[in-house]
Design a protein that fits this description.
The chain is α+β, with helices and mostly antiparallel strands. The chain is built from 21 helices and 26 strands. Strands 18, 19, 20, 21, 24, 25 and 26 form a seven-stranded antiparallel sheet that branches. Strands 3-2-1-13-14 form a five-stranded parallel sheet, sandwiched between helices. The chain has a four-stranded antiparallel sheet with strand order 5-4-9-10, with no helix packed on it. About 4% of the residues have low confidence.
RNA sequence: GGCGAGGUAGCUCAGGUGGUUAGAGCGCAGGAUUCAUAACCCUGAGGUCGGGGGUUCAAUUCCCCCCUUCGCUACCA
């Protein structure tokens, strides 16, 4: 028996948890934690809210509340919904608490005193009026590539380019709106370039057995050569840097957040927490692919420098991303299925969510959640295969034996479920239980669950083959054999379900009228390292009260969820809603069957649109594109290039000279390498033919439309 | 632009140190059945494994190029 420290990525407390988080991190982590506990391992399953960092402060400013208010709100929402779903954390902590502050400061100080950091001076933007340095995100300006005026210092959200604050044109402070000045500051850097040479190359070199997406990503970073990375920031919201002369500085969230795993452990076990992070304890991080560098490079580097016997991660089973109805899940665009809402809107369907998300877990590549697929999986797999098998066995038992296990002699051919003549491990364990255990130990949760379901399929097949409802009329002995075998399958299936669907498992066990001790479960789950055990109910055992294990999901429930997402897509697209290429991706996920009326929008939303009349002064076909025309437009004194997907409807020469309606402030977008600076609005006929929207009398190019 | 991970049946995904008929679930078609939440069981149709070149007796599996999706990262302006 060993200690296993299992961590699940700390959810960032600026929004609730959604199905992507669950499928990628929390459900697999929970299954793993449950299995290891069942196997009798000493497990600590650690998580908590990550409550520092710039996006939280931005959100707080936007809402006019304090950062603490924001994190308090989401910490509660997230924690409550995890608890209700049954994620079996031993502790769900948070990084704004005292233990964490103390421990992360001590960690920093320890490294500081070892001389692990490099002190580096640099010039950063400083807001004189607000009296503070500005994080990249706090600087707003014009994007140098797309001219979007609302670009942030680290990224332009319109065109997606990665920026540094000094690249921004017309930088302004998001705090005061004033023009920031450059001012010298000092921060402490982790010299990752040196640590790569002395430690990371070799350590990561030994991890080729990790998942290919994880190992490949790490290799990629190492090949490019790591660079020193600042572990402190000039910011107010965070853990203060615990050394003299560091006023107004906090620990970098990615320095401090992983330490949150340790401080949560300490909070839970003040006396022996260190045993879970040193010695022969085994550390496993469950994360999403966006966290790989922090958990596979930076945090291990920190732990290594710390020394003191700290263990390094044994396995980092990072998953890819889950898409929703054809689009990336996005917190800011509200394109998500939020756990807290799911729990309310789909009551008593926790295990259904666990099951579906496990079966589509993005273990090797991005995967896709759709509500229709969810419905199908629940109805045909959980209800049709698993629930149905349970129900028919229990109903037959009730009908023929009033729920009491009948006397069965030696099961004879052809009714035997498995071969009883061999001397080795039990064939059913070898064929079903052990493969599930092995797959789980190998972090292949999706396959493990599928293998579990195969046992239910086998049960249905066995019943169909031997038809006890016919046998009962002719052969009482054989009927007893068949139903007995079927009950044993169901019993073991109930045990096998536990890590995946703990509630359904426990319901089924109680319908079988059994309660299984931890020791018995252990001998079941140790199949592999030990022979394992096939559980059987004895003659005379009385089953419990039967009931349906899962309920079918009707179409209207699913339709309501889809409609909800459609409404989200519609409002997101409201600003740019018209025919044309650029909007396609926004609404492509769910296609409305007919042209439906769109939800009402506020005037303010409409007023955001800069609509202009423009004159086409040149037009040519875009090479290697069937549908695209490149138009040059006169808009006032300005000339603009717009790429429009209308080549199937118009020849270039027939467009020149026309006046068109232009959405002038649509985010630029590159198509076929040409940047399109706006969108031409068209009417679409019933037969799909496009028609220009032109003023009835010619007006000056650039005239605004409202 | 560079790097990493993908691109496999209508859909969602497995798999492949190169070698007879490439898999599963769902969906679809046909059959069988009634113990069961019109569920279950059987059978079948469906893929030149992103495209093009190369190595080889043989490539979907190895090499090169290209297209494409996702992610990481750079640079230019």
């Amino acid at each position: 028996m060993s200690k296993i420290t299992i961590t699940a990525a700390l959810p960032y407390a600026n929004g609730p948890v959604h199905i992507g988080h669950l499928a990628g991190v929390y459900i697999p982590a929970d299954i793993h934690a449950r299995v290891q506990r069942l196997r009798g391992e000493e497990v600590l399953f650690i998580c908590g809210s990550d409550e520092h960092g710039v996006p939280i402060t931005l959100r707080a400013r936007k809402e006019g509340v304090t950062s603490q208010d924001v994190v308090d709100r989401y910490h509660k929402i997230i924690g409550d919904s995890f608890k209700e779903l049954g994620i079996s954390f031993d502790i769900y902590s948070r990084t704004s608490n005292a233990t964490h502050k103390e421990l992360s400061q001590a960690f920093f100080k320890n490294l500081y005193e070892k001389g692990a950091f490099k002190e580096i001076r640099s010039e950063q933007y400083f807001d004189e009026q607000a009296g503070q340095f500005l994080a990249d995100r706090y600087i707003v300006g014009t994007c140098p590539s797309c001219k979007n005026e609302g670009a942030y210092g680290d990224q332009c959200e319109k065109c997606g380019s990665t920026l540094s604050p000094t690249e921004l044109l017309n930088p302004k402070s998001a705090l005061s709106g004033t023009v920031p000045m450059m001012k010298e500051t000092v921060n402490w850097y982790l010299p990752l370039d040196e640590i790569q040479e002395t430690f990371l190359n070799e350590w990561l070199g030994g991890k080729s057995h990790w998942k290919s997406n994880v190992y490949g990503q790490c290799k990629s970073w190492l090949n490019e050569g790591l660079r020193p990375r600042a572990m402190t920031r000039d910011l107010e919201w965070g853990v203060p840097v615990p050394i003299d002369g560091a006023d107004g500085k906090v620990l970098y969230v990615w320095f401090e957040a992983p330490i949150g795993y340790i401080s949560a452990t300490k909070e839970l076990r003040p006396d022996d927490w260190e045993q879970w992070w040193t010695g022969d304890s085994r550390l496993v991080h469950f994360i999403g692919k966006d966290n790989i560098v922090f958990h596979c490079i930076i945090f291990p580097a920190m732990l290594h420098l710390r020394g003191d016997g700290y263990v390094l991660p044994e396995q980092v089973p990072a998953n890819e991303f889950l898409n929703l109805e054809g689009q990336k899940i996005s917190t800011s665009r509200n394109w998500a299925v939020w756990l807290n809402e799911y729990l309310v809107e789909m009551p008593n369907r926790k295990d259904e969510l666990r099951y579906v998300l496990t079966s589509i877990a993005p273990e090797t590549k991005d995967s896709e959640f759709t509500w229709k697929d969810y419905q199908t999986r629940v109805n045909s797999e959980l209800v049709g295969i698993l629930g149905n098998f349970a129900n028919r066995v229990l109903v037959l038992m009730q009908k023929y034996y009033e729920g009491v296990m009948p006397a069965v002699g030696t099961v004879r051919e052809p009714y035997a479920l498995f071969d009883r003549s061999g001397a080795g491990d039990h064939p059913m364990v070898v064929d079903y239980v052990r493969p599930v255990v092995d797959l789980l130990n190998n972090y292949q949760f999706r396959d493990a669950q599928f293998k579990m379901m195969e046992l239910a399929r086998l049960g249905n097949k066995y019943l169909a083959e031997h038809e006890p409802w016919k046998l009962v009329k002719t052969d009482a002995e054989a009927t007893a054999m068949v139903l007995s075998e079927a009950v044993q399958v169901l019993y073991n299936l109930a045990l096998l379900m536990e890590p995946f669907m703990p509630e359904a498992s426990s319901r089924l066990l109680s319908q079988l009228g059994v309660s299984v001790s931890a020791d018995d479960k252990q001998s079941f789950w140790l199949a592999g390292s030990q022979p394992g055990k096939w559980f059987e109910l004895a003659e005379g055992h009385t089953l419990g009260a039967a009931g349906l294990l899962f309920q079918k999901i009707e179409d209207d429930v699913i339709d309501a969820q889809i409609a909800k997402l459609q409404a989200t897509a519609a409002s997101a697209a409201a600003l740019a809603q018209a025919a044309g290429v650029a909007t396609d991706s926004v609404v492509a996920g769910i296609e409305a069957k007919e042209e439906e009326a769109k939800p009402e929008v506020a005037y303010d939303d409409f007023a955001k649109l800069d609509l202009r009349v423009a004159t086409v002064i040149a037009c040519e076909k875009v090479e290697k594109a069937d549908k695209l025309l490149k138009l040059t437009l006169q808009v006032g004194t300005e000339e603009r290039t717009v790429v429009s997907g209308i080549a199937l409807h118009f020849q270039p020469e027939e467009v020149v000279g026309k006046q068109v309606l232009l959405l002038a402030n649509l985010a630029p977008r590159k198509m076929r390498g040409i940047e399109s600076q706006g969108m031409i609005l068209m009417a679409e006929d019933a037969d799909g033919k496009l028609v220009f929207m032109s003023p009835s009398n010619s007006v000056a190019p650039g005239s605004s439309v409202s």
